[in-house]
Automatic annotation (TrEMBL):
Primary localisation category: membrane
Keyword Transmembrane helix: yes
Source taxon at top rank: Bacteria
Source species taxonomy: Bacteria, Pseudomonadati, Bacteroidota, Saprospiria, Saprospirales
Keywords, sorted A to Z: Cell membrane, Membrane, Transmembrane, Transmembrane helix, Transport
Protein name: Probable membrane transporter protein
Subcellular location per the Swiss-Prot or TrEMBL entry: Cell membrane
UniProt keyword annotation of Membrane present: yes
Similarity annotation: Belongs to the 4-toluene sulfonate uptake permease (TSUP) (TC 2.A.102) family.
Transmembrane region(s): 77-94, 106-123, 143-167, 179-198, 204-222, 234-252
UniProt xrefs under InterPro entries: TM_pro_TauE-like, TSUP
């Protein structure tokens, strides 16, 4: 029953990660509260599932034409990937030497701010922007570097914050923003898994089981989102539900 819960929870997390973010709130809870792993091992083991999710979702988006972008947009995506990955390496290092307690306290208050940002003028998230709007390097470098640090450190909530920057600042439509998010997270998670494995902080049997679940959820969701005309609307409301759920969990007594 424990393994079944782990697999199904991972599949749900893979679907959530692909269209919005914060699926790690589910998988980390399973790893720590159901399976009983210590927080540092749960953090490392969770990255195996995130990596499987990333590969499957990336392939799903690729198979359905979501990687076909202009040269200008492709160059910007490469820059975003590079900057975020460098930040993530620093974030992984910090996760090995620092307690998560302070960052989780900051995280739950950031969620309230994020919910306000999401709910004000929902059309900014749902409407596809006309033309291409390229983000200034003066803004992109610190923003995506900070996002990389956060993702490398704890991962939970990374997708929510990254997607907000992609849609509201970089002016991507919500599905294409998810494509970039999935690629970025996959690349830096390869490094994270290597570092956590080197430190002996991965439970491989559980990690691989949850990776299988997240791959199923991630691929199916990416294939659906790439083709369905209302996928952007669904992604927006899923994001709202995910953030609300994360806030309730973060502030729930005990």
């Amino acid at each position: 029953m424990t393994y079944l819960i782990a697999f199904l929870g991972a599949a749900l997390a893979g679907a959530i990660n692909t269209l919005s973010g914060n699926g790690s709130a589910i998988t980390l809870t399973i790893l720590m509260e159901v399976i009983g792993l210590p927080p540092d091992v749960a953090n490392g083991t969770n990255r195996v599932g995130v990596l499987g999710n990333g590969f499957a979702a990336s392939y799903g988006f690729y198979r359905n034409g979501r990687f076909e972008v202009t040269d200008g947009r492709r160059r910007e995506m490469y820059q975003i990937v590079g900057i975020t990955t460098v930040g993530a390496v620093l974030g992984v290092y910090l996760s090995l030497i620092t307690s998560n307690a302070v960052y989780r306290e900051i995280f739950r208050y950031l969620l309230i701010v994020m919910l306000g940002v999401i709910l004000v003028k929902p059309k900014r998230w749902i409407n596809v922007p006309e033309g291409e709007h390229f983000i200034s390097r003066w803004l992109s470098v610190p923003l995506f570097f900070a996002l990389g640090i956060y993702g490398g450190f704890i991962q939970m909530g990374m997708g929510v914050f990254f997607l907000a920057v992609m849609v509201l600042v970089a002016r991507y439509d919500i599905i294409q923003g998810n494509v970039v998010k999935v690629v970025v997270v996959t690349i830096y998670t390869v490094l994270a898994v290597g570092i956590f494995a080197w430190r002996g902080l991965i439970d491989w049997p559980i990690g691989l089981l949850m990776a299988a679940g997240q791959m199923v959820g991630g691929y199916l969701t990416a294939a659906y989102a790439s083709k369905h005309p209302k996928a952007g609307v669904y992604a927006y409301w899923l994001l709202v539900v995910v953030v609300l759920g994360a806030i309730l969990k973060a502030f729930w007594p005990g």
